[in-house]
Amino acid sequence: SHAPARPRGAVSPLAARSETVMRVGLRCWRPHALLRLVAAAATAQVAAAAAAANASRDTCLMQIADLRQARRGRGSLSSASAAVPVQCDAGAPCVVPAGQTWLMDKSIEVETLTIRGTLEWDTSQGDLELRAGYVVIEDGGHLKVGTKDNPMDKPATIYITNGPTHPKLGTRFLGGWGSAKMDIHGRRLHRTWTLLSRTAFAGSTQLFLKHDPESMGWREGDRVGIATTTRGESTVHTIASIGPPIPEPQGCGDMPDVKKRCSIDRCKVLAFNMNDRSCDFYCGRSGLQCRAAYEEVNNDCAVKAVLRCDEVWPSTSDLICECQSPPVQFMASDQDPSLKVIHLAEPLQDEHWGGFRDVVGRRLEMAAEVVNLERSVVITGDHEDFYSTNQGLHTIITGTGYADIRYTRVEFCGQRDIMGRYCLHFHLMGHCPECVFEGNSVVDSAQVGITIHGTHDSLTKNNVIWNARAVGIYTEDGNEMNNMIKQNVIICSWWEFCSVNWLQNVGLHAGIFLIGMTNDLIENRVVGHENCIWTPGGARGDGHGAAFTKVCPMYTPFGEIRGNVNH
């Protein structure tokens, strides 16, 4: 693990000059997709035109249209001419040859796609889809869906179907090996998550956030997840609009012994300590009158029986009491005209804390996380049987190249009980400072959200992981060192949903699960997992996998651990 860093993906000037540049019109014409490849060096005339453009590959790409027009004016061409139609049938594999660069400006559906050269996504085109049983980037290949400086801001989809098996990487995947390079850059969000600045009550449809939603890059139609701060579940909602707040009724304030609030005005509550007590008694404690009383079903706001206000329900400690609210008053609206809240399409099911609370003389920020689950680039796939089979797609990079994946949504991913099949996966990359998972949204994983395996010096930052079964973020073998794991939010909507057995690991599940100890955990947040941050140490005292008996995790020093929040 301390070997000298290896150069990753370096291309010699000679190789860059000799690279054949092609434009790929990928039309989704059933039963096949037509790929029209235009080679830049077909005839002497075309070679001269290509040489003029050779100062820059980008310039060359821009002049392809002029080359096409020139060929049309020359009349018919031989089979060695510049315009060569190539069929990539839906029932057959498609290959990007080594030394060629293709630009994808139309959608395509093929059986499999193998990239040995370079495949670039046209960032000026929206709603493009690449559909294949798997996409493999082989040694020397490069997939570019946007770049850090020119991200794919428009909608783009990589759709993995349930197709054939690859001898190295298995089924249903986007992956690379050898010196493969993978760049996927969606529309940048200035923040992928924030906190509630005010408590939001059950039934409410607006959220006051710590950060301005528009400044964060959030938009109408985005799906957001809201972390639980009660005995309820974390839930997903849609942003209906972003705008000024709407005044809400002040209601009944903070009444005592509240297990759960059942209305936005806080007047209907699930109250505990109600043995031999009526709702008349309960409301009277706050100077209010009882309006209605109910027996609850099971620690919730569902009604099992309707009671009189003065009626005591035998053998129960919980009742739903609805108190008569005082004369209607409204909270003073903020005078700042720039204040924006997000208005939800669906009301909240539970109360979610926001802002600060006084706890034994200390003022602490105790607020629900609000995460944005939407991204412009989506990696998805067939998932009709996902919840019954626990088999989805997986992504992986292994070898001497790199993966730099930012602001991308990966969903219906992970393959339960199959080693190495995770949603986002650095696999035995060695020293890889170019390896980056940043700002991504990983939603619904059957087995682990992000795995850092046999990899050092990578960056995992500002990712949102929602409902990853087993583990949210995982360092696998014990030799992983100096990886930065920073400001990620890992949420399980309900702990039992994520606490599953996997790869013969019984009871080993957590939001962050470290076998490689010498890594930095900075300001991450874990919600709703049975175990939040777990460093098993002696449980895997000899390491794991390729590092078995080569490391000693229980004596390995921790990296920097600070500012993490678990609840």
What does this structure look like?
This protein has 567 residues and is mainly β. It is 9% helix and 36% strand.
Topology:
Blueprint: H1 13-18, E1 20-21, E2 24-27, E3 32-38, H2 44-53, H3 57-62, H4 64-74, E4 83-89, E5 94-96, E6 100-104, E7 108-109, E8 113-115, E9 118-121, E10 128-132, E11 135-137, E12 142-145, E13 156-160, E14 165-166, E15 170-171, E16 173-176, E17 181-185, E18 193-195, E19 206-207, H5 213-216, E20 223-226, E21 235-243, E22 258-261, E23 268-271, H6 279-285, E24 290-296, E25 303-307, E26 319-323, E27 341-344, E28 356-359, E29 362-365, E30 369-372, E31 377-381, H7 386-389, E32 394-398, E33 402-406, E34 408-413, E35 424-431, E36 436-438, E37 441-445, E38 450-456, E39 459-461, E40 464-468, E41 471-475, E42 484-486, E43 489-491, H8 495-498, E44 510-514, E45 520-522, E46 525-527, E47 533-534, E48 561-562, E49 565-566
Parallel strand pairs: 1-6, 5-8, 6-9, 7-10, 8-11, 9-12, 10-13, 11-16, 12-17, 13-31, 16-32, 17-33, 31-34, 32-35, 33-36, 34-37, 35-38, 36-39, 37-40, 38-41, 39-42, 40-43, 41-44, 42-45, 43-46, 44-47, 45-48, 46-49
Antiparallel strand pairs: 2-3, 3-4, 14-15, 18-30, 19-27, 20-21, 20-30, 21-27, 22-23, 23-26, 24-25, 24-26, 28-29
Helix percentage range = under 10%
Shape assignment = globular
SS field, number of helical segments:
8
Portion in beta strands:
35-45%
Q: Low-confidence spans: pLDDT under 50, at least 5 residues?
A: 1-6, 9-86
Rg, alpha carbons:
28 Å
Task: List the strand order in the largest sheet.
Answer: 1-6-9-12-17-33-36-39-42-45-48
Q: What is the CA–CA distance across the termini? A: 34 Å
Question: What class would the helix/strand composition place it in?
Answer: mainly beta
Q: What oligomerization state is this entry in?
A: single chain
Specify the biggest β-sheet. Answer: 11 strands, parallel
Average pLDDT score? 85
Strands, count: 49
